[in-house]
Amino acid sequence: MTTILIELCIGAFVGLSLGLLGGGGAVLIVPSMVYLLNVDEHIALATALIIVGINALVGGVIAWRDGRTQIRTALIFGASGMVTAYIGALISRTIDGRILLTVFSILLLIIAVLMYRGNAHLKQRDTPHSLWVIVAVGAGVGLITGTLGVGGGFVIVPSMVLLVGLPMRNAVGTSLLVIAMNSSASLIGHLDTPFDWTLIGVLLAGALPAMAISGRISASINQDKLRKAFALFITVVALFMLGENVVHFSQ
Question: Which of 42, 120, 162, 223 lies at 20 to 30 Å from 114 by C-alpha?
């Protein structure tokens, strides 16, 4: 019973972060599964793809219904990213789990810095970059998603503003569809993973209602303070993971 409550809390925390910040799912779920639930590193990274992908799909559909997405841009980013996401998933399976967690922790530190700075400094581009630049960025994000199980919204949103010229509101909504596409392609490369579907069900049972609730209360919360607090929390988690893995390799 205690384990189920922990799993529900992890799922709820993930749902709250997605609902309030539009990201952070894998950032929370991977270390939680590894260090709190003792899940194998490869299984945790693959499971994160399912949780993040489903939540992103739900959020993307809602954004599409609200007119906050640009389907053409999502397809360009998503199509290029799906190929490399699948390749990244195959690469991930050949790498030692501890090495993946070390790289993951370094990536968390980068995410924390980007989150702390926020997107307010981004200026919408008047003329989009060439199609090949957009495809290249989409492919790079897909590779990160496939290898480390991270949705990549922290890269996709600024890229859509700076490269494509989307308004921030549309970039956030469009990025959710790209995350869902990349996650599904990555998952194909992990189909033989021994998933714990009961665990996945409990995590989603905690995440989806929390995401719905957070969507209603988000307007009353200072987003800037919340984002910076979350960035500091991620920094602490990343430093713990990095230190723990460095100690492991030094033994």
Answer: 42
